[in-house]
Amino acid sequence: MVSLITLAALVAGIRQTLAQSAVTVKVASTLQQIDGFGVSQAFGRAAEFRDMLSGAPQQQGLDYLFNTTTGAGLTIIRNRIGSGTTNSDSILPKSPGGPTAAANYSFDDDDRGQVWFSQHAMKYGVKTIYADAWSAPGFMKTNNNENNGGYLCGTPGHSCTSGDWRQAYADFLVQYVKYYNERGIPITQLGFLNEPDYVTSYSSMQSGANEAASFIPILYDTLEASGLSNVSLTCCDAMGWNSQRSITQGLVSAGMERYLKYITSHMYSSDPNSAIPTKLKTWQTEAADLQSRWCATWYSSGGQCEGMTWANKIHNGLANANLSAYIYWQGVEVNQFQASSYLVASDGETLTPSGRLWAFAMWSRFVRPGAYRVSTSGSVSGTGITAFKNTDGSVIVVLLNSGGSQQNVKVSFEEFTPAAAEAFVTDNTRSVASITAPLADGAVTASVPSRGMLTVKLTAAA
Prior knowledge:
Blueprint: H1 2-19, E1 21-33, E2 36-40, H2 45-52, H3 55-66, E3 76-81, H4 114-123, E4 128-133, H5 166-182, E5 189-191, H6 209-225, E6 232-238, H7 241-253, E7 262-266, E8 281-286, H8 307-319, E9 325-334, E10 342-346, E11 351-353, H9 355-364, E12 372-377, E13 383-389, E14 395-401, E15 407-414, E16 418-426, E17 433-435, E18 439-440, E19 443-448, E20 452-460
């Protein structure tokens, strides 16, 4: 009887081994560098977060976004450079009278809550703060309005009777950066466009590659002259990846790669699914479900608000488009249950994280700024695989199973010998939950749940 039981166990073990898919992580074969994952609280959402939540709920909201133990561990925030006609929405709400006239800048030390949000993000270790302008002030544009598109006066084909405002716009942007620096909030990336291929009733400014190329060197030189050469320029936050690809082609042809550090895009008209030909880093700087009511679901039917949907979007961006960053639109909102354009909902007291937040967490909590994506070989049925090496030497493997059955995986390594392994899983019943991942003979074995994610963190011997 004992021998039969032993034989049955042996057969079961063999079957399990045979059912395992083999993956090899090539730790020395580096791909793109990762800058991080993040959110925005633009257009006054930061002030609402601060003012409509207080005490424990406010702290919990910040923790959900930035805490590396209980939250997503996000590492980037994207702030809006206001261009309105009030002191709360612009550092230059009124025209000085002409492009060469002295500008009467002023800063209200709040910036619709973005100063508060930036300061609190920094307390969690966030060091990447991207400041982006949706538009130049209206008096600098062909339509004399910050809204409804219009072009920057002085760009090719867009002259204005008031003159060429390109240098004045550069000065405006640099002054905004200075205000933040003076308050101990260093801006690390600066953008001057947002969805330049889209005309809408709120802050917006049109631009193609030619217009952008006529302004980029001016802004670059203005930063240099102001001692801000450490601030990296981005372009152009187009509506979708395909549009940004086209604009980038024009920028590359115009020699703009010498001035820029990042190509930036949104995903509303097309997701990032293949690399843009450029030597610059590429970021997905705004993404959201703009169609659904609030939902916190991980997986139900593959809907746009579901966490699994966004896990696939992030995976495709990292693995196929070689993204260095992925940023969702909004982080925390209060009493906005008509939308899923943010990651954490609150009714003023209770906070509810979404499956989308946990999708971000499965990368962001473990893949830290400065990491490099590394190559892998082998495949797992229905499962996407990305792997990374952090600056502290740890190796992260993220597996995303879109299929309807569990996948058993054995992960081995080249140029790396793991001494310890931690594993975390997210699916319909668990959110970044710790599970066992046995480590033996330099390889780790684990199970990836159906329509779920597994993240494994491996460390070498000290």
